[in-house]
Amino acid sequence: MINGFLLKGYGGFYYVYAEDRVWECSLRGRFRVKDQEFLPGDRVNILPEEEEEENKATIEYVEPRRNVLTRPAIANVDQAILVFAMTSPKPDLNLLDRLLIQVTDAGIEPILVFTKLDKYKEDALNDGSEGHAITDVYRKIGYDVFEVSSETGQGIDQIAVRLTNKISVLAGPSGAGKSSLFNALSPGKKLKTGQISLKSKRGRHTTRHVELMVCAGGLVADTPGFSSLFLPEMKRAELTDCFPEFAIRRRLCRFNSCLHDKEPNCAIKAALETGEISPERYEHYLIFLKEVIEAERKY
Ligand SMILES: Nc1nc2c(ncn2[C@@H]2O[C@H](COP(=O)(O)OP(=O)(O)OP(=O)(O)O)[C@@H](O)[C@H]2O)c(=O)[nH]1
Ligand SMILES: [Zn+2]
């Protein structure tokens, strides 16, 4: 018996990644798992058929799931890689903060990857600007932040080690460099069954269909669904928990129920005054707070 991960189900077969190859699996055999819904990311035990070179096997057992992401439907997700360009296009930080809330609410570890470092440095040289203000804001909050160039390869190795043996979902706006990053992470690797490029996959499936792809010794899913602009259903007081730099200070607000908006003696607004909290993050918080309150009224 071999342990593996389900990449996708397609045409009555299940494609399982195990021992560095993809197996075409069926549910035949006396251990047939009936009425079992499989999801990409499911840990399965497979039994190879006699002619092993054909990469055919049967699924014998599905392990209990550690977690399930619903949109897109993937099991056992370890982390979310949020991809934004440092420049061209200028990162939409409202969207980044929205994605951070969705990911945090789903209980998944976010990793921030800022791409096009080469272009950013070139621009900085040309217009004399300096520093990494954007990335510093998120690093200071405590997020895992990486700056990379898929063009020069700078920083790619550090991302690769974070992917190994993990299930990751990839999210970010169009043009941020997700495909380029994916390719830079899988240099010269021959595509095998079940492994297709990010681009061709997107072309084929415009729906919520997901599959995991092998990348840097781990499994990665491209997740258009995660780029949804809607915040998850939550109570207004819960929004503070999605802003780590707010959450650590909320105890110091005068009112327990402080929403850090119009209330007096608010520790978050005090930290905003001293520059400890980024004005942009606070601005997004207020926008999201309004949306959450409006959504609250609807249910
Ligand atoms: N200079 C530079 N250009 C990059 C880098 N990464 C991506 N690009 C360019 O940015 C453009 C968009 O990159 P893609 O990888 O296609 O972006 P994507 O996020 O997959 O975009 P969608 O498929 O629309 O979601 C392409 O022209 C890339 O060549 C980088 O690190 N440096
Ligand atoms: Zn407050």
Automatic annotation (TrEMBL):
Classify the source by domain of life.
Bacteria
Q: What is its EC number?
A: 3.6.1.-
Sorted alphabetically, the Gene Ontology cellular component annotations on this record are: cytoplasm
Q: Cross-referenced Pfam families, in alphabetical order? A: RsgA_GTPase, RsgA_N
Residues holding GTP: T115, K116, L117, D118, G172, P173, S174, G175, A176, G177, K178, S179, S180
Q: Tell me which stretches of the chain form a coiled coil.
A: none
Q: What keywords are annotated for this sequence in UniProt?
A: Cytoplasm, GTP-binding, Hydrolase, Metal-binding, Nucleotide-binding, Ribosome biogenesis, RNA-binding, rRNA-binding, Zinc
Q: Name one GO biological process term.
A: ribosomal small subunit biogenesis
Top EC category: hydrolase
The EngC GTPase domain extends over: 75-227
Please describe the quaternary structure of this protein: Monomer. Associates with 30S ribosomal subunit, binds 16S rRNA.
Family, per entry? Belongs to the TRAFAC class YlqF/YawG GTPase family. RsgA subfamily.
Its name, as the record gives it, is Small ribosomal subunit biogenesis GTPase RsgA
Protein source organism: Desulfosporosinus lacus DSM 15449
